[in-house]
Model the fold of this input.
Amino acid sequence: MDTRDVRYFGKPDWADDYYQSSLLYNVNASIGGGSKNANYVFTLATTKDAGVADNTSYTKYNIGFALNMVPLDGLNVSTIINAAKIDRVRNRNFRDRFAEMEYMVDFSTPLAPAGNLYNDFLISNDLTKDDNYNNLLNGLLALSYTKQRFNATASIKLDYTTNVRRAFWPMALLESVNFVSNYSGYNQRIIGETSASYWLPLADIHKLNIQWNGSIISDLYHYNYTRAYDGDDDMKPTTSTGNFKQYRYVDRLENRWVSTSIALDYKYKNLLNVGLLARYDGNSAIQSDHRWMFTPAASAEWNLKNQFFAGSTALSGLSLRASYARIAKSVQSDRYELGPQYLATSITWSGEPLLSSANGFATITRPYASGWVGYDLKLPYSDKMELALKGSFFDNRIIAEIILYKNYEKNLLTYLPVTQEMGYEYKLASGMDISNQGLELNLSASILKNTPLKWDLSFNASYNKNKLEKLPENREATVIGDHKLQVGQSVDAFWVYQNKGIYTNDSEVPVMNGKPLNINGVPFKAGDPVWTDVDGNNQINDNDRVLTGHAIPPYTGGLTNQFAYKGFDFSFNLFFALGHSALNLRDQQRYDFATLDNIQSLQSVKEIFFWQNTNQRDDYPIYNPQSSVHPYRAEQDLFLEKLSYLKLRNITVGYTLPIKKVGSNIPKSLYFYLTGSNLLSFSNFSAGDPELVNFNGTYDGYSLPIPRSISLGLRFKF
Done:
């Protein structure tokens, strides 16, 4: 590259136009009134939350209405209606755009970092169209009737959401080819619930309530999507006028969940509460022979304070609680209920995998990329067990609770490999079990209560350990993509090679039977990484990758302090997460440039922030980037970093100004407050904010930064 080229060797001032500070606002208003037999409330609200990079933003408008009436003695009627409109301004990442278009360009040269060149790109980008709208409607109609010991309820709830996206990218950004897409879809949920309960007339020391519940949940998801390429010109950015080459997609998914139950609640004096539940659940997305499941539950709470320490003044309360519940879990696709099937992408509309292929083409469409769905797919469920001890002291000024729990996730669906001769990449199977067990501690205290200065403190901490208990077909392990599931190991562990440094000369490479250590037949040489040969066979392969670390933090917790003095108040919140790790893919891709520049992959895309001087680690070994052993591959612990962190979530300072009331239209008080969010973070993670790591424990640098924000507010009460 010519060093005289000011685009790449001039002032790198692109960040001035990429990052920005923006105002955030939230405005709410409500009005209500009524009497004891009828009352209402009407609300309006608007919120705008702007991102700190790439001109992203989020605007939401809300309107709501609620009405409660008592037309007859014992009969209550409630109605709630909420509507919202959301307008999003998305990022302008190349990777997101190319992923939608399925269009590959020359990724070897990134966008130049000079501000004037970046502005030229933004000018061209102004010709694009990227509208994103969501409309939401929620409604509730509920009836409740109470007559002495009898109570009955019935309700219907509606949740309706529409999603609209219209996108267009002009020829100037796509090497003389333009692109347009239109998406419209809706999600609809209708919930019908009814119940009836009766308190049996027993002796005063015994109380027994019998309750019946029934519900049905109906979900419907539907969308229409059109992608189109190579229109006439950029002045016709719609599929109806631009003579585009079009590809159309449609899908409809339905899911129904039905449940019915009988519950018994028994109380003995103020000493013992016992609950029993017998419930049946059914889900339409599961094959008919496994669609229904019995899901019982039981709980008991023993008041130890009243039983043994009734006369204690220091002990305000002490109780022991135990519970068990089986909870059925829905699956998201109605494809599973169809039974044995295959999908072939090669004979559907433009490779659309959601449209099933025809049996007549079975011999010419293998492999079936979406896998085989067989028989005996069962409804997943969770078995949850809990034991808790809760105590309060000194007139409830101190409350402490410790909880032991163990959860089993059973009959989970997972993918298993099959022989390639069958034509499938994998098959879907039921029967994976995962356990989670742990400990939770909750503590709250009013340290200063009956003094001018008040101080309230709350603290919580938890520990969780997960383990894969079982795989379908009694398998010991399975590999899904670049993730390995091993029975007896954590499901969130990283599957990596153990990196021990660098071979400085050829003589350091282990030799067995006259052959040097190799990977896929390629021998290691000077300048290559040292990876542990776990099985000692002088070959590095997947058998030498180990499961280590956690993507999910085993330890989490938080601390909140609230102070008040006269009209002033001050509070802050801390959060911590410990014991987990992250795979730094951003560093890996920077060092693996020799590989990425030679493949046509979205991983090769270089955004404008490719040039950013981040807090990269600089202690990686310098391998030969051209080596055929692929030294900077991602699946090694070289790029695995500890992710433990402590965050100051927010600080709030406020003052309540009392006002002497002189009229009904004068507010009683004014409350001024100043809040700072995401102010401080303490972590050794080299890439910065640990909360930008993806849910699977990888960091790719594409998440927009979480902004530090300062909010000034005013709240008044009439």
About this structure: The helical segments are 6-9, 15-18, 94-101, 115-125, 304-308, 585-591, 593-596.
